[in-house]
Amino acid sequence: MSTTSKLVCPGDWDEASHVVSDVYFPHRLTPLSREDAGNTVAEAVELGPVKITHISWGADVSIRSEHPGAYAVNVPLSGHLESVTGKNEVSSVPGSGTICPPDTTTLITDWSKDCSIIGVRVDRDYLHREMARILARPGLRLPPQLDLTSENGASWLVLVRSLLDQMLRSGGVYANPFVAEQLSGAVTTALVLAAIPDDETAGGGTRPRIVKRVIDEIHSDPARAWTAAEMAEIAGVGIRRLQEGFQEYVGVSPRDYLLDVRLERVHADLLRADTSATISDVAMRWGFTHTGRFAAAFRKKYGSAPSDVLRG
Burial of 221 by CB count in 10 Å (0-12 exposed, 13-18 middle, 19+ buried)? Predict the structure, then answer.
């Protein structure tokens, strides 16, 4: 599902802060000058787990946020951002972007008056799953700053700016949930490839490749009645070695990874299904044959029952 929103010229700082919180992240705003909020601009488009925003306060401000449940990538188009997260102090200007980790306090000590940003919000769990799928390496983390002068970084920024511009002008085909799903994946994959240097993903030897083969096959056909032997055959190794590879490079077993992908597909279908759909039909479509176990796994992952998502 995709949505768009836009605010221009709010009445006061409280209103401006409230709207930016709604379209990006909840935060505490502190104006650092005597300018009013009349020049604030906040625009946003949403592609499921990814949200792209354009924000400008039109005044020197400070922002404090914990970024609950998601990463923020703040890319100045003009001006500068001075940010502190833990021991990391990051100064970003055009050509770079600040990456704020989820559920961690980040203080933007100086968002300059002339600073306009493209802000990209990516759901934490979604990004982690995409990193595991793309890189097949455990323990890799996004750096505190993104280089947008590199080929991958520049291409990613062109992609997100183009999507923001086109979706704000007209939803069109982007409103289609299937298109939105593909675009959110493209934005996230491009972000990971831009943020993680090649030398950090190289040198993994055979196991990352065998794991990636199975991961790609699971994503292409999660409803398949998978067996451990079939997965091992695709990887070209024994079952035990494949399980060791998944634990080492993904952090879960192949079976648990498959379960997670299936739950994601069911969740996405329930969000866009009408009330005439039955939960059991949707679950069976993605390979679940035991409704009780499915419901328990769904609730554990999403914190709510499948029926709540369908009605919501």
Answer: exposed
How is 266-293 classified by DSSP, letter by letter?
HHHHHHH--TTS-HHHHHHHTT---HHH
| Two structure tokens written together for 198 | 């090649």
Quote the CA–CA distance of 304 and 279 in Å, as a whole number: 14
Q: Does residue 231 contact residue 212 with C-beta atoms inside 8 Å?
A: no
Per-residue pLDDT of 261-273, as tens digits, reads 999 999 888 887 7
Half-sphere exposure of 303 (CA within 13 A, CB side): 0
Close Cβ partners of 128 (under 8 Å, ≥ 6 residues apart): none
Contact 98, 73 (CB under 8 A): yes
Query: CA 25, CA 105: separation in Å to the nearest integer?
Result: 12
**SS3 state of residue 297:** helix
> Which pLDDT band holds residue 204 (cuts at 50, 70, 90)?
very low
Contacts of 269 (CB under 8 A, 6+ apart): 277, 282, 285, 286
**Contact (Cβ atoms closer than 8 angstroms) between residue 237 and residue 231:** no
The string of DSSP letters for 103-146 reads TS-EEEEEE-TT-EEEEEEEEHHHHHHHHHHHH--SS----SEE
Half-sphere exposure of 208 (CA within 13 A, CB side): 14
Segment 246-265, tens digit of pLDDT: 888 888 899 999 999 999 99
DSSP code of 173? G
Instruction: Name residues whose C-beta falls within 8 Å of residue 261's C-beta, 6 or more positions apart in sequence.
Output: 218, 219, 222
